[in-house]
């Protein structure tokens, strides 16, 4: 949930902060980039944690599905993102923030059911 929340803030920051015309804005954008990389490293740690706590019988299928989804995403999303970028450079960031917000909703629904 924290990762998705941070992505909403970071992606909306990428989309809208450059519209401001202040001299210090470059520091805010660099800060967003650093925070983005920190949370990306947390995502790597999360997959490592999954390997430690998951049932070994389930780990193979979970890993295979995860790799498949990531591979498809790595091929398809840049194609659509590049097309959106050509229309308006802010669109990929706004849509990414929307998808992250949707992830928060599903994460919270899953946590409530448990």
Verbal overview:
With 114 residues, this protein is mostly helical. Helix content is 87%, strand content 0%. The chain contains four helices and no strands. It has helices at residues 2-16, 25-53, 56-87, 91-113. The radius of gyration is 17 Å and the shape is globular.
Which shape, going by the Cα principal axes?
globular
β-strand percent reads: under 5%
Broad structural category: mainly alpha
Helix content: over 70%
Quote the average pLDDT.
86
Biggest pleated sheet: none
Number of helices: 4
Order of helices and strands: HHHH
Number of strands: 0
Q: Termini, distance in Å?
A: 15 Å
The parts where pLDDT drops under 50 for at least 5 residues are: none
Radius of gyration: 17 Å
Quick take:
This protein is mostly helical and 114 residues long.
SSE topology sketch:
Blueprint: H1 2-16, H2 25-53, H3 56-87, H4 91-113
Helix pairs in contact: 1-2, 1-4
């Amino acid at each position: 949930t924290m990762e998705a929340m941070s992505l909403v803030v970071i992606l909306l920051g990428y989309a809208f902060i450059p519209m401001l015309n202040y001299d210090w804005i470059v520091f805010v954008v660099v800060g967003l980039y650093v925070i983005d990389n920190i949370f990306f490293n947390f995502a790597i740690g999360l997959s490592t944690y999954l390997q430690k706590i998951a049932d070994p019988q389930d780990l193979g299928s979970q890993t295979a599905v995860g790799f498949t989804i990531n591979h498809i995403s790595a091929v398809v999303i840049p194609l659509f993102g590049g097309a959106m970028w050509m229309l308006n450079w802010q669109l990929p960031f706004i849509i990414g923030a929307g998808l992250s917000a949707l992830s928060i909703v599903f994460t919270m629904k899953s946590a409530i059911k448990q």
